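Record now logged for everyone:
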Amino acid sequence: MKIKFNHFIIYALFVLLAFTSCQDETIDVNSPQDQEMIQPNSELARFMGNVTANYGEYDNILDDSSCFSVELPVTIIVGDITIVIETLNDLEELEDIFSQYEDEDDFFDFVFPITIIFNDYNQVIIENEEQLEDFIEDCDLEDDDVIECVDFVYPITFSVFNGDFNIVDTVTIANDEALYNFLDDLEDDDNALIVSLNYPVTLVYANGATVEVNSNQELSDAIEAAEDDCDDDDDDCDLNIEDIENLFLECGLEAEFYNESGELSDTLHLYFNENGEVTVTGDPTVVETGEWDVIETDLGYKLVIEGLETFGTANGLWLLIDCDDDDELEFEKETEDGIVTMKLELDCEINNEVFECFGDFELQECLGPNNEAEFNLSADTIGLIDCQYAFVASFHETEADAEAGVSAIVETESYWSGTGEVYLRIEAENGNFEVFTIYLNTEECNYFECFESFDAVIEQCDNGTDGPYSFDLTIAFSNCNPSADVVTYHETLVDAETGVNAISNPESYTIIGVEGVVYTRVVIEDQFEVFPIVLVVQDCNPSGCSEQDVDGFLVECIWNAVNYNGSDNLMNWNFDFEPNSQTVVIYNNDTTIDATWTTSQSNDGVILTFSNVAGPNIQAINGEWLVVECEEDRLQLHSGDDILVLERTCN
């Protein structure tokens, strides 16, 4: 970070004068009057400093901080538009552009680096957004640090005296920054100068009025009066009852309650509706409803809230004492424990977030009887939405009914209609609502398209016998069945055509032999079609060997693991498969292992299983191995990505 300070020639003048012990020639000898001397650290010096301090609030639309302003020109990017701000008038024009993004955060970016100017005119070069946010968060500006409602009319002049009250110079000030630094330098501990302001001096107020002052006291009074006017302006609230009510109805409001000591005592969320009801949520997380009204009294406008128990803090007559026309209102009421302040701030995000879950919908269904389609309005709209916020949904045939919340559709899960629209009303907890359009589209449909799109074949592996073989008929059209009203299975085409003699247990239908055909009768919208299902028993052994073949090979001779994942490190192990005990003796010169072996038939082929193999390296063969190549003296086995090759030696 780079820090750059502005210095003025007057600084050098002060240093020069402070170290001058005598002069060959004096400009004048004239003792200043007390009412004209500017005393360091005096109330007048503070007033003048506050008037001339850099007013950081004027560009809050850019930096949201009153502690500093952004040096112009500066470049920002809004969306895909680059804007160069060169003058204060450009800032005013920005308000129209920014109003389009009032519901969005961080909708523009600075082009860095930028320079910020603090109230004391010190400058800091900002390299990135993170540095800027740090300064914004650190801003702690007192209300009276800057007085923005009055300005000096320049130029003004000061007479500078030495210790002998000789006028050694006259300093002319041309702007706020020069005057602020001039006054700041007077407060240096090593400053030995005496200065007086040369009157008359003219001040100009924010409304354009001017006043001429002729002494320090008049100047102090004029600035103090302007400061009071500033405070009064801040407290002014140009709202009428209608404006206040409209603010309440616009969004939800966050309510913060402060006791007389200024300590935050509670925070609630209030939702006002046009029926005079206010819904309150808070801690505990319950919802309570009361009544509200706005009345006009001799003291001003008062908000009346009553009928709350859990959140009784909000009950009472609340006097409006301050407001920000955009989104903030401040009220107070008298209690036995002193004055309680309630600050209300619009919280539109909470109020609107529920509506962000929804949008317009477009539904399409097949035409049925009477050229109408059946729509499941609830399942195909709100049933598809996962929204974390509470809401009440209703469906209406006209937009007017939806807006009014009347004549809701009752049969939302079975609504028959031609092409057209219906309307979804979503109502939030606070009573606010939005209406969305549901577009209903119809089409001529082939109800049986899914069933016609493929030939149904169910395959079963040959177990080496003539059967029986069991088939689950329901899997043949499992992806299509949900769209059907009725699905039955029949052994003959005639039975299927007439809808009689349905197979009673289609999940476990058995046949003898290696091939068969059954028929599926499908009923949709009172129409039916019949589709065949071919049942096939096939040889599933990729090796070409049956389980009996593998068993016969293994129990003859001694086998060796000649290859394990391309290595022969298991070559020294001998496998002796015992025919009756399911024991395999695995041994080498040093170790003998009694393990277990079994074979089984799967849909993929013959499975050889090893278990209880405990020995160095050889334990890797535990588990199931699929026989993928089968010869009388050689077996190739796969287990996942592992490959094991066994070969036998017969002496």
User: Anything to note?
Assistant: The chain has a mean pLDDT of 84. The longest strand covers residues 527-538.
